[in-house]
Amino acid sequence: MASSALTGKLETDVEIKASPEQFHDMFSNKPHHLHHACNDKIQACDLHEGEWGKVGTIVNWSYVHDGKAKQVKDVIEAVDPDKNLVTFRMVEGDLMEEYKSFVVTLQVSPKSGGSGSVVHWTIEYERLHQGIDHPETLLQLAIDVSKDLDAHLTKPN
Description:
Layout: E1 7-16, H1 20-28, H2 34-37, E2 42-49, E3 58-65, E4 68-80, E5 85-93, E6 99-110, E7 117-127, H3 136-154
Antiparallel strand pairs: 1-7, 2-3, 3-4, 4-5, 5-6, 6-7
Pfam families: Bet_v_1
Protein name: Bet v I/Major latex protein domain-containing protein
Domain Bet v I/Major latex protein: 5-156
């Protein structure tokens, strides 16, 4: 990505109770089940082309951001089950009206000194122009989805 005032990178960590493998599995292999955990945020995730959990797979997402229904299509750029990492590059949809590029990576690691995990979210982006906000509200959406998914994964049967 070119270095300019239009490019940026946002990162955050979210502590969860679920295992790294459980959380990673939902985003890499079962994202079409995410709406069960947070249907107020993720409304649908559909396979457009390829196989769940495979690099090159194209996925359509329907989600709610700032109170509005949105759509995005992404390509899975990286999946590393050993590192519990997955990277998505957005290629079409509402985000591309404001961003020239938008890449989201999540990596889940065991929490040091205890049970649970830490989800590390990274958003790398290039805005189309200075009038576009940095995507802090999208980073907050990732945090909120993480918490909802964790509650879903760790709820008693």
